[in-house]
Amino acid sequence: MKQYSIPGFFDPNNAVKIYPIAYGKLAEEGLQFAKTEKLSPASADKKKIGLMIIDAQNTFCHPQGELFVGGAPDDNIRLAQFIYRNIGTITHTFVTLDTHYMKQIFHPFFWNDANGDPVQPYTMITLQDLKDGKFSVNPAMVGNIPNSTLPGLIKYAQHYVSELERKGKFALIVWPYHAMLGGVGHALSSVIEEAVRYHGFVRKTDMGIEIKGGNPFTENYSVLSPEVLTTEGGSAIASRNTKFIERLLGLDVLIIAGQAKSHCVAWSIQDLLDDIAAKDPKLAEKVYLLEDATSPVITPFMDFTKDANDAFDRFRSAGMHLVKTSDPIDTWPDILSKIQ
Predict the structure, then answer these.
(1) Can you give the pLDDT at residue 158?
(2) pLDDT in tens, 188-217
(3) Helices marked H in the chain
(4) Are 335 and 253 in contact (CB under 8 A)?
(5) Deepest in the core among 57, 121, 220, 280, taking most CB within 10 A?
(6) Which residues are registered as beta bridge partners of 111?
(7) Beta strands 111-113 and 135-137, pairing class
């Protein structure tokens, strides 16, 4: 499998910059590169190799992002270079976009403390906290969610945090406002968008985009399923992204990278693994995790490094492969049987 040189326009210093992509010029260069290298369109690939990039957005990847992941810029440099080097091998790219609003259960606006003031970011809320009156639903939420009542929201909030505990999920954390739709933080990191768009022009295919996270009633770390799916009465409030799961499992090889390793990456992989376990556990062997293109959440208040590493150990034990961007794809474990 041929590896290609990094294009001259790529600058690793851009990993910490936000800039507009010159789409027209990028298209010209990409089409000329495909012609020079005699690269066929992605639709002609006999074996379909997909790259899913989870939440490589400014909110997580830029040093001034609301939830900056410290390792993200270096991860993105390695990931962009990986895309350029393997541009003739990667068939499809998929990007996920964490997409949020002010009035969501994990944002400060949803909650008041015992004094009636908004809770501070990085506050953890448990069922016992709610029972003790340490935190309560902000009454202003009633005016922001149609057909809601304060007693109903209070009852749902207790159900929500208890469901997280019952399902073994992370406890509810009130995050800083982040990935707000329409804001700079919501956009893809420029250095990643540039690489993915270039791949599209070279291989004559557009990237897939999966939006997640807009439901006011639940967190949505995973692109494949929200954290909680029903109300306390069993009514559905959300559903699993079954169509996208089927698309991913239909690939011959699936490569995964993105941010953050401990949260949106780990829970997306876990949800995929749950579906794999239900269908055919051997499907896990087609999944390759770029372990040097993802980093855990570390803040002054919490460090999720161990959670991230434990999760990736579970994924490896289930049959998925942990690989590096610097390793040629054809040297990855068991890859030749899947791509030849």
Answers:
(1) 96
(2) 999 999 999 999 999 999 999 999 999 999
(3) 23-37, 58-61, 72-85, 127-131, 150-166, 190-203, 242-249, 266-279, 305-317, 336-339
(4) yes
(5) 57
(6) 137
(7) antiparallel
Q: Find out whether 154 and 136 touch, Cβ atoms under 8 Å.
A: yes
- Kindly list the distances between the CA atom of residue 202 and the CA atoms of 35, 81, 145, 212, 217, in Å, as whole numbers in the listed order: 9, 15, 45, 28, 41
Compute CA distances 66 → 46, 120, 281, whole Å.
42, 14, 37
Query: Read out DSSP for 158-227?
Result: HHHHHHHHHTTPPPEEEPPS-SBTTSGGGSBPHHHHHHHHHHHHHHT-PPEEEEE---TTS---SSS--S
Scan for tokens 């922001």, then name that residue.
144
> Residue 226's closest CA among 235, 237, 234?
237
Q: Alpha-carbon distance 96 to 55, whole Å?
A: 5
pLDDT of res. 340: 84
For residue 43, the number of C-alpha atoms closer than 13 Å in the C-beta half-sphere is 4
Question: Residue 77: how many CA atoms within 13 Å on its side-chain side?
Answer: 10
Query: What are 257-280's pLDDT values in tens digits?
Result: 999 999 999 999 999 999 999 999
Low-confidence ranges of the chain (pLDDT < 70): none
CA 259, CA 139: separation in Å to the nearest integer? 33
pLDDT at 147: 87
User: What is the pLDDT, as a whole number, of residue 144?
Assistant: 87
**For tokens 């609003």, what's the residue?**
101
